[in-house]
Specification:
Layout lengths: L4 H13 L29
C-alpha cells in the first residue's frame, strides 16, 4: 500500500528476486496489511 512500510518492503523483495511491484488491484485492495505475492508464468522471453 503506497505510503506504508509495505511499499518499501515490496520494493526490496522485488529487487532481490528480479520481480516487479504493482499496486493492489480491486479484488485485493481491502485485504489485510502485509505483502501479497502473486506468481504467474511469464511466457515472454527476456
Amino acid at each position: 500500500r503506497p505510503g506504508t512500510s509495505e511499499q518499501a518492503a515490496a520494493r526490496a523483495l522485488a529487487s532481490s528476486f528480479g520481480l516487479r511491484v504493482e499496486p493492489r488491484f480491486e479484488g485485493i485492495k481491502d485485504a489485510s496489511p502485509g505483502l501479497i505475492v502473486i506468481l504467474t508464468k511469464d511466457y515472454q522471453r527476456r
